[in-house]
Amino acid sequence: MDKRLAFLVLGFLILFSSCGVEEKKVSPELKTLVQKIEKGEASISEIEKAMFLQVSEEGGDPKWVVDTYEKNKDIFITNAMARIYYATALCQLAGNAKKEEEQVFWVRKGIMEFEMLIEDFPNE
User: Fold this and answer.
1) Sign of CA pseudo-dihedral 87, 92, 98, 104
2) What is the pLDDT of residue 21?
3) CB 117 within 8 A of CB 83
4) CA-CA distance, 30 to 37, in Å (whole number)?
5) What is the model's pTM?
6) Where are the domains of the chain?
7) Crossing angle between the packed helical segments 80-96 and 100-120, to the nearest 10 degrees
């Protein structure tokens, strides 16, 4: 139960920290990784690193993380960290949504992913 609370708190902290960010800047490392991924030249660890940077940097794009994860779900389904980045990105999309219904949709989807993570990785 403590892990569930920790994941939920992490998701909400990231969600609220992403709200109100005006101008965004992307690091050169993230730009390089995204270009490499778009060319199909990136390894799984590089894709995971880009996912991390997208959810943690001020200029990150949570929609990119969601799209990338969902296109490669079969690869990332056993990767706890990639799934954490995905769940975090879902919650961040709630912060970017204009309508309350969209915000609720993304938060619920993110929380459900965090709950599935706890079930799938109970010892981590």
Assistant:
1) positive
2) 46
3) yes
4) 10
5) 0.78
6) 2-8+26-120
7) 170
Encoded amino acid at 82, one letter: A
Size of the chain, expressed as the number of residues it contains:
124
Spell out, as residue ranges, where the chain has pLDDT lower than 70: 1-24
Q: Per residue in 52-77, pLDDT tens?
A: 999 998 888 999 999 999 999 999 99
Residue that has been written with the tokens 């990231």 in this structure: 14
Neighbouring CB atoms inside 10 A of 117's CB total 20
Give the chain as a DSSP string: -HHHHHHHHHHHHHHHHHTT--S----HHHHHHHHHHHTT---HHHHHHHHHHHHHSTT--HHHHHHHHHHTHHHHTT-HHHHHHHHHHHHHHHHH-SSHHHHHHHHHHHHHHHHHHHHH-TT-
C-beta of residue 59 within 8 angstroms of C-beta of residue 26: yes
Helix axes 62-71, 80-96, angle to 10 degrees: 140
